[in-house]
Amino acid sequence: MGNSKTPRKLSAEEIELLKAQSQKRAKQRLLELQKSDMKVEYQIFDLLYNDRDEKALKQITRYNTLETNKQGYGYGSRDKPLRIVSPYMRKNGHGEIKLTNPVNIPSYRTRADKNKASDKEFKAFLEKNKGKSYDLYTARTKEEIKESIEAFFKPIELIEYPINNPKDYKLVATIPGFPKQIPSFAKNIHLHSNPPFLQGGSYVQLAFGGTPDQLKPYIDEARIDSKVVISKSDLSNVYVKNYVDSDMEYADTLKTLMPTSIVIVENTTVPMGKYVQNQVDNPIEKSVDEMYALQNQVLAEFNKIKIDGEDSETKYKRYVETLKRVEAERDTLKPKQMDTVDLGKKKYPIYTELENRKLQKQYLHRLSFNEDTVEIPADYVIYLFDFGGNWNHPYALGAAVSPEKNYIIYFCQRG
């Protein structure tokens, strides 16, 4: 429009000026999008990795909803740039590791690479344990049966009575990135370790405080081992691409894979009433005798039949059928069981704290304390050594450090 309010044709100079202004605005918008809205702590160390992969971000269904677009977070009009990280990114790796266990965890760019490595590892395991497996068709001694029972129930014991006494840190399995030992200056120590069992996951934690100068070497080593450094408040802004060929449609955020709470160990010990009563009601010697008698009866019945050329699968099925038949016959001879309706209301002995500690030392040979959990503050900085899995089977290994750098929480979560 000219001064007369009537349309007129733009001059060549004016067209060039408008183009220049448009390009300037486009560049400015690009700079705004590229400018990290993350806290200053956010950092990755793999120079060849693109954590702003727009193609991958556009695939994320839960991210690209109508609501997130309205809020300005959609990929088309986002003013809050998100990130994508992957377990196969290179870690920092610059520096010397002295105080903590080495983090030499293999990473795989594709799922096929991971499956190939897993198959190789499984074959190596079979080769190493060849001839050591339990032979169904050979009777075990009572000592062997007892060892198998104790091995089965050990994880249950460690879940109900976790290792959480700092004096027992040597009993915790070696975790990559964790301190080799608890430093002498450590205060406000909170240790927790429970193993996986059946479908349950495992969680190991070592948390302790000190002055910023005392913790500096530990924080420095955490940074050396890290693939990602990020503020806890930004975890929901970072999505995980497990493999280079992963479908990002339903990708998880780092927040989904991370433990968000710290285990706080209390001063009182876990009650031993149920444990002691179970020892009285179900002594292991009784179970050993029953299993010993059962196996001998099953093998006696099983060996009555000899089939020349019987293949291993048919032989196994015949053994299982024999076992079921013998167990059913033995069950009919057992006395009728008591009504179990009120079994859940069973009362167990209650001990004083002093008595409880004595019983733990007698049966567990260590002390196990009651626990609680508290949320890790949002301003803690997360140093991630490794991560992966999904919301149902999360995996995260790393450390969380307070903003004052006077408290550190090492964690290893496997879902």
Main sheet specs: 7 strands, antiparallel
Largest sheet strand order: 1-5-9-10-11-4-3
The parts where pLDDT drops under 50 for at least 5 residues are: 70-79
What's the number of helices?
Answer: 11
The assembly state of the depicted protein chains is single chain
H/E element string? HEHHEHHEEHEEHEHHHHEEEE
Q: What portion of residues belong to β-strands?
A: 15-25%
Query: What structural class do helix, strand and pairing data support?
Result: alpha+beta
Q: How big is the Rg?
A: 30 Å
Mean of all residue-level pLDDT scores: 85
Distance between the termini: 66 Å
| Total number of beta strands | 11
From the spread of the alpha carbons, the general shape counts as extended
Written account of the structure:
The protein is α+β, with helices and mostly antiparallel strands and 415 residues long. Helices cover 36% and strands 17% of the residues. The protein is built from eleven helices and eleven strands. The strands form three sheets. The chain has a seven-stranded antiparallel sheet. A two-stranded parallel sheet has the order 2-6. Strands 7-8 form a two-stranded antiparallel sheet. Helix 9 packs across helix 10. The chain is extended, with a radius of gyration of 30 Å. About 2% of the residues have low confidence.
